[in-house]
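Researcher: Quick one. two chains, 592 residues in total.
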Amino acid sequence: MQSLQRIDQAVARALQSAEARGAPPRLAAAIRHAVLPGGARIRPQLTLAVAAACGDDAPELADGAAAALELMHCASLVHDDLPCFDDALVRRGRPSVVAAHGERCAVLAGDALIVMAFEALARGARRAPLRLPALMAVLSARVGMPQGIVAGQGWECEDWVALPDYQRAKTGSLFAAATEMGALAAGADPAPWRAFGECLGEAYQIADDIRDVAGDLQTLGKPVDRDRTLGRPSAVAELGMAGALAYFEGLVDRAGAAVPEGPGARTLRAILHAEAERLLPESLRAQALPMAAAAA
Amino acid sequence: MQSLQRIDQAVARALQSAEARGAPPRLAAAIRHAVLPGGARIRPQLTLAVAAACGDDAPELADGAAAALELMHCASLVHDDLPCFDDALVRRGRPSVVAAHGERCAVLAGDALIVMAFEALARGARRAPLRLPALMAVLSARVGMPQGIVAGQGWECEDWVALPDYQRAKTGSLFAAATEMGALAAGADPAPWRAFGECLGEAYQIADDIRDVAGDLQTLGKPVDRDRTLGRPSAVAELGMAGALAYFEGLVDRAGAAVPEGPGARTLRAILHAEAERLLPESLRAQALPMAAAAA
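Model:
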């Protein structure tokens, strides 16, 4: 089965369970809105690609880990869009969850999605329960305190933060989790996979900063120039556009070099290359692509 | 070791890990504020009491389950107090998390606490990993969708809700989890313990409704008459004060009758009796106590 199909099915199973008999209908609709139709599903794809590179001997568990990461990512988007943070009315080219379903349902949808993520992971572990504690430890560490995505968002409440720390926690940590959990789900050592995920994740955050300045509403699916408006840390604000592009390219290089050699390395570098291309606004690709291509 | 001491230590371990090097300091302070000093810690006490009644052969796991329930409870209080829900400035007799640390830290503290809860459970399961999947399934179901405490709060976003469904999800479910997880942590069947937790939890919610009307700020630790102000479902609004008291007493009776017979039954009924007494405002105890005492 193709990996996108596996991810869709795993996410659908989680949704189905959340919408079962007795669920409050408005909250259920807000959760569905947060999850479907999905974005690029890059994190769960990474998980399945790494699991495949490690043998994928427990595919149900890899699917559970992939769904968990996607649900966590959706939870973070829903809470990021709340009025007290980004106050974003548009997400993925349509109304955000908070715009469509109100603030109360948005808070609760994020909470429910965090719980659903752990639930999906545990459900996938039924036939391989001995792998569950380590998977939970990684997922908790990469999402929660002191250095997960929630901690990363927490840095927005501080007066000052070092940009790399912020980027690493806010975005890099869930990408690291995606690669580590792919390995763990297949019974492999996660340590060699961490750097690949971290570099790719940091590259994502930089690309996001670049698109925030150089993108347009239509391709971005959300308003531009929000970082400056909201006074958020941004690679473009700190390094300038040329500096941010060079930083991005360096991270893509490092991610490519960090892929452990083995049967899946070629596929993973191909994903990296395609993503690096997709991530930049068209107008900037000519500048950045030669280096990204060299890394792939 | 006394159970309160075990709970304090398990919660402190979770806090310590959240506050480790690299944590954003304001968010870390908000999380500490949410958890310490604690309230009655009744849910984790129930867990340990049921685990003890079932032999408590894996005390680390029982401690992890107890901490998980307390952290989930704290998460729900922090998010309930947000401006879009109760807009509460006072909790446990001092400023609420949102009043003391702002809305952004309050949203993130709740998110982090949910993650910390699963993390504490997984950490406790290191020596008994085969018990972890079932514990996670119960915790997820009783916290998330479609019928956990998040779903219960979700009913506040609907135009109409049946009071028992609302009470059962919003409060009863975490009490059910407390008893079921105590049994599971000790390797016992959770099914016989569920009704005890559910009845006790529903009694708690009714007592909360009663105190909201008949209590005072000092003993309640939060403003009174919030349910009516906020238009929330309330047993007192629906049944009148006498009806709500009778309903409460009936639930305490049923909880007492639902305790499975065995070596721990006497201790559990004693906890139930003490709690039933503690839960009602002093002015109402004379009316209700004879029946509560009969149940104990």
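The domain at 3-295 of chain A is CATH 1.10.600.10 (Farnesyl Diphosphate Synthase).
Researcher: Thanks, that's what I needed.
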